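Hi L.,

You mentioned the student needs an example of a multi-chain input paired with its predicted structure. This one should do, with 480 residues in total across all chains.
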Amino acid sequence: MIDLDFLLDTLGKLLAAVPTTLGLFFLSLLCGGMLSLLVVAMRVSPYPALSWFARGYVLVFRGSPLMIQLFLIYYGLGQFEFVRESPLWWVLRSPYACAVLTLALCTAGYTAEILRGGLLAVPHGQIEAGLAVGMSRWTLVRRVIAPIALRQCLPAYSTEAVLLVKSTALASLVTVWDVTGVAQQIIQRTYRTMEVFICAAAIYLVLNFLLVRAVALLEHRLSPHLRARPSHVPTQTKTV
Amino acid sequence: MDLFEMLGFGEQGWGSAVLLATLLTVALTLCGLLVGSVFGALVAAAKLSPRRSLRVIGECYSTLFRGVPELLVIYLFYFGGSTLITAIGQWFGADGFIATPPFLVGALAVGMISGSYQAEVYRGAYLAVSRGELEAARSIGMPTLMLARRILMPQILRLSLPGLGNVWQMSLKDSALISVTGLAELMRTTQIAAGSTRQYFVFYVVGGLLYLVLTALSNQAFGRAEARMGRSQRRNFVNP
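Structure written out for the whole complex:
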């Protein structure tokens, strides 16, 4: 009943598309991460103009579907003459680059909120102590705020990373040949929907599992001070 | 054709089509959430059960629907379902391609995905109900059904409202993916309008704004519901 040859062949073709998916994921994670640092800095700044701009940014990118954002940037911007003439066109013309750009913008919105939650969880006493010993603001950020805030937001960030992996599937709607795109292509040729989609789903499940384990390992390595100390029990009593 | 004519309600205007599509999106998300509440309640019960086999089934459901991209789930349900029905039709002698109804399948897909998130919400709400109340009810011999009706349900409903608000927002954005089935909800109507008038930017911005309006209105509605249901609880940090 189960056509093993077809399954193995499909799996091979889908695995060949995994680098595209991983490329989309890592590029948008990096760009989105850097952008989110900027957004969260604006969000917690005392200047109302910056703070409200950041609020608006997060509202727009968390309130609208990723699909509309993607279509807006890929089809919408390409409609204008001045965009096509501009030097940015070599970026905006390629579907892969548009997908990375949109994913980065979207994940920056979610990550900025997660980072803000992490920042609010830093105990104020530690910041006061740092200022009291005369730490400069940059030293304070580098040695007190950033380590605590980043460690606090790791659990929420792992959820966001999993959502990012799932969002890369939408790039197939703008003709990027990632795992979902290749799966669609195979189905259009062979009409064997169930097997192909189950293979693709299994690949995404494995990717997400690895991602969750990687973040859990990072969390574990960064919090030795929160676990019980290993007790050094002597194996035999010594008589002095 | 200028902007107002294009978005208006005249003969050449897309206004009425877009507004009807918005209503369809809301209806789709609502049906999906209702389906999801059934699945979510069952999975939450399974995860809270003392029997290990049920807990494993609940975990598998959660992992599956939170790990596989929503687009793949919708493809699987719609195109996989259509292939299945076509095959069944061919056994009975029918010819050609039979498609599953897109609203039904879309609501089912959105429902099963939201069900996995709703299960977490209901599970958290159940664990937050005070054990003392349940013990007291048991000790006076309250039958289980009455216990569920008079103690558990009202409190679970109140405690799960914030989580359900998040799930509703998420499902609203997932419903945009149902446009791949061809159902004329907001995303698909925006796409058709944009393609027909070649004004991609305008229509995708309008679509995005409509989703933002839906999000804002939902936030308001859920905020009011939470305030009303929680009116017997003491509120912290509220100045008289």
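You could point out the following to them. The two ends of chain A are 76 Å apart (CA to CA). Chain A touches chain B through 41 residues (CB under 8 Å).

Best wishes,
N.
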